[in-house]
Write a structure and sequence with these properties.
heterodimer, A: alpha+beta, Aldehyde Oxidoreductase, domain 3, five-stranded antiparallel beta sheet, four-stranded mixed beta sheet, 3 helices, 9 strands, B: alpha+beta, about 20% helix, about 30% strand, globular
């Protein structure tokens, strides 16, 4: 299950989507909205995505993880729109035969999504909104 | 030829547009489109070095040659997850 959604992410639905009787372990990563950033209080994040490209890229990342770690099932759901502090913005769930591969594959998928997938977040603070630019944001060629 | 331009995040805020169509000379490069955008929207200038581009939903270099009907996305530094 690879999805971009506007509503709160239903964790049970995502976990159930990777159920597999051959699995010995399932790892879930839940990325949640921090209530602070650089000393400022954050009320929400407003996520925007280039949805068609983002979905394609996440599909490719998931396929790569499947091949590399022999993943049984993998799901990734990214939420867009306004996401309040404490709520989930990204959920990745991976089921594998043994736990080691589940941890590694899950981590790989999250890191890959954060690196290149066209999704952006605007930090909503009392002073207004500001697009987040990750430290080390690379200058393009 | 005509291409569709899609803008996101800071680039969308600066230009005030999420997408539009534009006429370009045959064989124009992505970099030619960038120059037009920066000429129209001075606010993009300081972001110029940080913008990436995708043509038909695949990242590409600024030297990529465009074709009629292409969808070109202007991609500021991503920050998903």
């Amino acid at each position: 299950m690879i999805e971009i959604v506007r509503e709160p992410i239903d964790l049970n639905r995502v976990i159930n989507s990777v159920k597999d009787s051959a699995a010995g372990g399932t790892v879930i990563f839940i990325g949640t909205v921090r209530n602070h950033s650089s000393g400022r209080s954050v009320q929400a994040l407003e996520y925007q995505a280039y949805e068609s490209m983002a979905l394609r890229m996440i599909e490719d990342i998931a396929l790569e993880a499947k091949k590399k770690w022999g993943v049984l099932k993998i799901s990734a759901v990214h939420r867009v729109g306004m996401v309040g502090a404490g709520e989930a913005g990204l959920v990745v769930v991976v089921s594998t035969v043994h736990r080691k591969e589940a941890f590694e594959a899950c981590r790989y998928v999250i890191d890959a999504i954060k690196k290149d997938v066209p999704v952006w977040k605007k930090e909503i603070t009392e002073g207004g909104g500001k697009w987040s630019v990750r430290s080390g944001g690379r200058k393009s060629k | 030829m005509k291409v569709k331009v899609k803008l996101f995040a800071i680039a969308r805020d600066i230009t005030g547009a999420d997408e539009f169509e534009i006429l370009l000379a045959e064989n124009a490069h992505v970099s030619d489109l960038l120059k037009i955008l920066v000429d129209r929207h001075a606010g993009l200038k300081k972001w110029q070095g940080y913008l990436r581009f995708a043509v038909n939903q695949t990242y590409c270099q600024a030297g990529k040659v465009l074709k009629d009907g292409d969808e070109v996305a202007v991609i500021p530094p991503v920050s998903g997850g």
